[in-house]
Amino acid sequence: MVNIDNATAPSGFDLSNTRSIKTVARAHLLRLPSELLLDIIGYLDIVTVAILSRTCARFRALAHRDWKQFLRQLLFVKKLVFWGKIAFDSPNHSVCQNCHRMHRINHADVPQTCNVVPPCVLTPQNRSLAISLNPYKVRPQHVQTALKLSRLGNIHQGYLEKLMTPFTRNRQPDDRGHLQYFAAMPKIISGGYLLRKEWIFKSGGECHFEDVHGQIRRAPLVCYHMIIAFMYSSLREWNLAQKYRLYPQTPFDESFWYPVCNIGKEFKEKCANCSDRTEYSILCPDKYTMIIRAWYDYGTETHDDGASITGFLEKKMPRRGSSSQSIREIFDE
């Protein structure tokens, strides 16, 4: 099991803290001649050489590389793959796709604590509104760590439990919006990370959801592709636009207004831009309520190319495999 220290992860390879050879001097492998060990090291891939150089002072010398120069020469994707393979069996670290380095696991960093994020993570526009509508934010590091700790099964299980704990939030007394209830439930199924979210909005008037529309059109709700167009601020405007084809609609416009016009009928769709990894449904059970549900497939873990770089919407993210079942069906099994 690889365990990389604090100094190493953020900046590359600082090999000054390798263990003393005295602690491993009796290992049979280290009794071999240096020439033979060098021949063996020559057959190893670069990731294995990097891990080997962290084991003791002798292997540090034998497997010496200019790691900083090596990392500078790697392209973005190759650098993530390199760090991902090192982090694959490292229970204390995860790969960051923002700064292309490794971060030490912070047990306070869970999806429901949106304020505990590394400084390299970009904050969205309308951050306060985004958090109020979507207080459970899964980042690639959460998925990567949850899958890894689930696979290892013998370390940081308390943190894994926190990562996988369902989250609910009822409307707060000081909320100005119309979100009455929010829930998020993660699951690990067949080695893949799935997530379900649910929003319940209450309209201020009978069949008039303009107030709800106005609240969620400024911040992506289901995913970043599902943005409501600014020009359709009312059902009447949307109907006119449909009739006279005035403006192109965003994918979420029809999804929003269809259930408003068809009380009791659930509208089901998936985001075409998320590579079939996002499904959602909208239902208005009565004239005052709108229920939005979304199901996400964050993929599986692998140590091949794209290793441990489990991040939503990543093209290299390992797929679950061909299945006729929807994400919703797999989640509800």
Uncertain regions spanning at least 5 consecutive residues: 1-25, 305-318
E-strand count: 8
- Total domains: 2
Structural class: alpha+beta
Count of discrete alpha- or pi-helical segments spanning 4 or more residues: 13
State the end-to-end distance.
34 Å
Task: Give the averaged pLDDT, no decimals.
Answer: 76
**What is the rounded Rg?**
25 Å
Largest sheet: 6 strands, antiparallel
Summarize the structure.
The chain has 333 residues and is of the alpha+beta class.
Fold and architecture overview:
It holds the Pfam family F-box-like. This is F-box domain containing protein. This protein is α+β, with helices and mostly antiparallel strands and 333 residues long. It has two domains: 66 residues, no CATH class; 253 residues, no CATH class. The chain is built from 13 helices and eight strands. It has a six-stranded antiparallel beta sheet. A two-stranded antiparallel ribbon has the order 1-2. It is elongated, with a radius of gyration of 25 Å. It starts with 7 loop residues before the first helix and ends with a helix. The N terminus is likely disordered.
Defining traits:
18% strand; 8 strands; single chain; two-stranded antiparallel ribbon; 2 domains; F-box-like_dom_sf; 13 helices; six-stranded antiparallel beta sheet; alpha+beta; disordered N terminus; F-box_dom; F-box domain containing protein; 333 residues
